[in-house]
Amino acid sequence: MINLYGAHITSISIHRVGNKINNEPIFLSNDSFHGDDELTPLLKEYFLKPFREKEENYFQFIHEADLEFHELHGLSSKIFETPSTIHEQSKTIATHLYDQSLHPHIKPGELYVVYFENIQLNNEKVDAIGIFKSEIKQEFLQFSENENQLKAHLQQGVNLNKLDKGCLIFNVNKEEGYKILSVDSNRYDARYWLESFLGVDAFEDENFYTKKYLKFCQNFAKDVVLPAEDKKEEVLFMNRAVNHFAKNNEFEESLFINEVIDNPDLIPEFKHYKTEQAPKYKIEDLTEFPIANTAVTAARKKIKNVINLDTNIQIKLDFINTESADKFVEKGWDDEKQMYYYLVYFNKEQKV
């Protein structure tokens, strides 16, 4: 878990990176930027706010040969070893980004390379390097007084409420490629930022495994449980799956199967489905791993627990009390109406 509120900025470097293929220039500042007591807190909020609002999906630097050949990994290591060199290294980072700006749709913009101290990552204080880019300019009015006349001037600038692109490189797990968070508000060039510039892949930790396994279960419920049984059982399967993750600190697949899959006929289907689909989720040999509670909470919010009927009626099942749906909701077939029905038992209607 990350806590960014106590983060302290010790250095900011700002450069402008154009689109290389469109022959737009690159501008490298000679010195680092020194903000005042009013601007620096605003920039800190501009840089870090998106990461507080985003699900923690970590990345790491990767290279097909060896990490020693990964440019940003090498530059990050030099900065962490000697933070005072960050401005000079930031020029190389800006040039590296410029060299990747080879698609006509990539927008020019300002690049900020920032050094942070006092970030809490998993209850430990760590340093981090922030690399941010502002691309979209917005129009605003600036006013001036001239004798008895107030004049309006149309200008363009950066909206401090929306960061276009950014990443935080934490000074942990150096040998594995560091631990990295990334945001990208402009999806039209996602490969340019994540793949071409950063050169990262998903960081495979307990958060990654928990998220991927639950996503795999969700698709199993949709592709196998729903056709074999019905919508109610699909929802209940995911209900049991999420509750199993929520009440355990460690995942053990055989225990999960025995506890979550009610229908014994679906157990071989589950194993077969995993064999076929596992590479897609990177869980081929995954049978045991620590469970990340934050990933379970995030997954619970995304999983639908509503049965939508073609008669414009919805039945919402409780994801906490799964036994209620088993005991008090029955599905049947009405021969006279030639329609399915759900029979719901209750004592009294609850006031909302």
Textual characterization of the structure:
Strands 1, 2, 3, 5, 6, 9 and 10 form a seven-stranded antiparallel beta sheet that branches. A two-stranded antiparallel sheet has the order 4-11. It has helices at 39-52, 71-81, 86-99, 190-198, 206-228, 231-247, 253-260, 266-281, 293-302, 322-328, and strands at 2-3, 8-17, 26-27, 59-61, 109-121, 124-134, 137-146, 149-158, 165-170, 179-184, 200-202, 250-252, 288-290, 306-308, 314-316, 329-334, 339-344. The chain has two domains: 2-203, no CATH class; 207-344, no CATH class. Helix 2 packs antiparallel against helix 3 (86-99), helix 5 (206-228) runs antiparallel to helix 6 and helix 5 crosses helix 8 (266-281). It is built from ten helices and 17 strands.
Write the layout of secondary structure elements.
Elements: E1 2-3, E2 8-17, E3 26-27, H1 39-52, E4 59-61, H2 71-81, H3 86-99, E5 109-121, E6 124-134, E7 137-146, E8 149-158, E9 165-170, E10 179-184, H4 190-198, E11 200-202, H5 206-228, H6 231-247, E12 250-252, H7 253-260, H8 266-281, E13 288-290, H9 293-302, E14 306-308, E15 314-316, H10 322-328, E16 329-334, E17 339-344
Antiparallel strand pairs: 1-5, 2-3, 2-5, 4-11, 5-6, 6-9, 7-8, 9-10, 12-13, 14-15, 16-17
- The count of domains is 2
* Radius of gyration (Å): 26 Å
Task: Give a count of the beta strands, DSSP E runs of length 2 or more.
Answer: 17
Average pLDDT score: 90
Unreliable stretches (pLDDT < 50, length at least 5) are none
Largest sheet: 7 strands, antiparallel
Order of helices and strands: EEEHEHHEEEEEEHEHHEHHEHEEHEE
Amount of beta strand: 25-35%
Structural class: alpha+beta
Specify the overall morphology: globular
Helix count equals: 10
Terminal residue distance: 35 Å
Helix content: 25-40%
